[in-house]
Amino acid sequence: MAMGLEAAVQAILKADELKGKILNSKDLLNDNEAWTCQRQLQRIYQQVLILDLEYALDKKVEQDLWNFGFKNYIGTLQALTKDKKNPKRSECQALLSWCLDAASGFYLTLLQGICSAFDLDLPFRRNVGVYGGLGKTHEIENEAPSENKDNGIQVCNKRPRKSSCLYVCQHCLVHLGDVARYRGQARQAEAFYRHAVHVAPCSGQPYNQLALLEGSRGGGSGDRLSVVFHYVRSVCTAHPFPAGRSNLERTLKMALPRSNTDTPPAYNSLEDLSSL
Length: 276
What we know:
One of its GO terms (cellular component) is telomerase holoenzyme complex. This protein is an all-alpha fold.
């Protein structure tokens, strides 16, 4: 077994232990051990993605990273922040802002590390403006070390497929867009999502996120035609986004008049759309 792969396998075993502790936590926000496990999990998954990207993707590390490293906490805090009866609402809002800042910084760093480790030259990385929040004089390109030894991470000798590299870059961009959307930064979120489309046009997820973003504009009264358009794109790509179909169906049911059978007109045409 290659050294990079062997280290990745051992890291995944450790990550599974940490994930189990997080899952067993009864109170994520007040469980200090769960917070510690979360941060350790983030670091381990970041390392595994660079140690052996193909193995990491096979184990769906990128999905667990988002869900257990960030999304579960963000979702819990969002619910507590929206609860007007919550006496600690302001504290939850402050903690939510901190979590979103941490998530944004993490995925920017991960994107830099992936591009540096696998010699990826993505055009938009040359324009620091895409990263928002960072000063114009801040050179993004110079942040990533030329060798990952500086980070204590050894890259697997077997170079991953370019499609895998682009996929994980898109993954970072999509979640950078998600974080911006949670912050209410619609223009920045759209920029990240569109960069994600450019990186891997055959993937449906960025289109699904663009539909969510469009639907959230104007307090949830966004351009329905644009929402439907992006959901259609999300299911008509070479790699459709699994939730795109149900999202499209729900949007059509809300937008179109109902018939006697309580089924929207042209509902059957959805089958034709999905097979394009």
